[in-house]
Design a protein that fits this description.
The complex is a heterodimer of chains A (110) and B (122). In chain A, 0% of the residues lie in helices and 45% in strands. Chain A has 110 residues and is mainly β. In chain A, strand 3 and strand 4 form a beta hairpin. Chain A is globular and about 40 Å long. The mean pLDDT of chain A is 96. With 122 residues, chain B is mainly beta. In chain B, the strands form 2 sheets. In chain B, strands 2, 4, 5, 6, 9, 10 and 11 form a 7-stranded mixed β-sheet that branches. Classes of the chains: A mainly beta (110), B mainly beta (122). Chains A and B meet through strand 3, strand 7 and strand 8 of A and strand 5 and strand 10 of B.
């Protein structure tokens, strides 16, 4: 039922950079702010990025968000083993009149 | 600080109604633009948004589950209750409640409960 598409997995070596895409439409990403959530194994999701690119207090600047048209991207630089988690994008969908999450991306540190 | 905690049955039978309670602290649901949402996650699968209730009692539901969901709030008790009717084994998963940030014009969930695992089985 997810209307936001993410790659199932991305991986890189420690210290490298990964990017996670989130593809939607004009009903959601194209006209609404995007947020990102990190979910470590066995734990509740954690709020990581809001309003496309803003970081809440305590989130390191190794994490960045951007949006262009109907797609959003989460970037992680200086990859660490502690970054291994599932990452979800989310936004309001004006057609569905509800919030939607992405399909989720598993980040693996090689 | 803001905290939320879900409570309810861990096991329900097919066709039964599930009632979950979110008890929160650190904010008031009578403050403008504040909301509390429910999100679930089947084992090994993605997050799925279910519903949100706002400070003014405005409610929004997932269109895919709208006919089965009801969300209510008790501001005096700092609680939000979600009911889901006609439960099915596919509804098995972890159910989270979360605080919706109070900024108008943008929707995100900045504080989450620990989640409660609900299993649907006879």
């Amino acid at each position: 039922q997810s209307v936001l598409t993410q790659p199932p997995s991305v991986s890189a070596a420690p210290g490298q950079k990964v990017t996670i895409s989130c593809s939607g439409s004009s009903a959601n990403i194209g006209n609404n702010y995007v947020s990102w959530y990190q979910q470590l194994p066995g734990t509740a999701p954690k709020f990581f990025i809001y309003d496309n690119s803003k970081r809440p207090s305590g989130i390191p600047d190794r994490f960045s968000g951007s949006k262009s048209g109907t797609s959003a991207t989460l970037g992680i630089t200086g990859l660490q083993t502690g970054d291994e988690a599932d990452y979800y994008c989310g936004t309001w969908d004006s057609s569905l009149n509800g919030f939607v999450f992405g399909t989720g991306t598993r980040v693996t540190v090689l | 600080q803001i905290t939320l905690k879900e409570s309810g049955p861990t096991l329900v039978k097919p066709t039964q109604t599930l009632t979950l309670t979110c008890t929160f602290s650190g904010f008031s649901l009578s403050t403008s633009h504040v909301g509390v949402g429910w999100i679930r996650q089947p084992p090994g699968k993605a997050l799925e948004w279910l519903a949100v209730i706002y400070w003014d009692d405005d409610k929004r539901y997932s269109p895919f589950l709208k006919s089965r969901l009801t969300i209510t709030k008790d501001t005096s008790k700092n609680q939000v209750v979600l009911t889901m009717t006609n439960m099915d084994p596919v509804d098995t998963g972890t159910y989270y409640c979360a605080h919706r940030g109070p900024v108008p014009g943008t929707v995100y969930f900045d504080y989450w409960g620990q989640g409660t695992l609900v299993t649907v089985s006879s």
